[in-house]
Amino acid sequence: MFADFIKRLTQPDPAPLPDDDARLALTALLVRIARSDNDYAASESRLIDQIVMQRYGLDAEGASALRSDAETLETEAPDTVRFTRAIKDAVAYENRLAVIEALWQVVLADGSRSDEENALLRLVASLLGITDTDSAMARKRIENAPN
């Protein structure tokens, strides 16, 4: 279903993604981190919906549809290294930094951080060109945010 999208995204020197495609790719990263501990909880999918509703101004139906498409894309996307590097080349820095913050929301949603989630988030942040300091500051903002 997303073969052309993935091919466009992973070609050498991809063009910047249009907003809708960037939303889809970044939401697929949220799904990937939620699935990384092999426990894709309903609370995580609800949180992803909330994140994309807030970030992209979607209603509940639009958020659910975007997440559903992102779940499909995530299963078809190449390994995390190639997928994330492709996103780095096609998405502006401020959007990549915002997705790190959203990834921390997903990781922290169930009240525990697994080694798999920590490792994947460190890898994704690095591949997106986000410094450890910026990622740690994003995590602190999420941890200190009112529930």
From TrEMBL:
Limits of the Co-chaperone DjlA N-terminal domain: 23-139
Signal peptide stretch: none
InterPro entries in the cross-refs: DjlA_N, TerB-like
Source superkingdom: Bacteria
SUPFAM superfamilies listed in its UniProt record: TerB-like
Protein name: Co-chaperone DjlA N-terminal domain-containing protein
Organism: Sulfitobacter mediterraneus
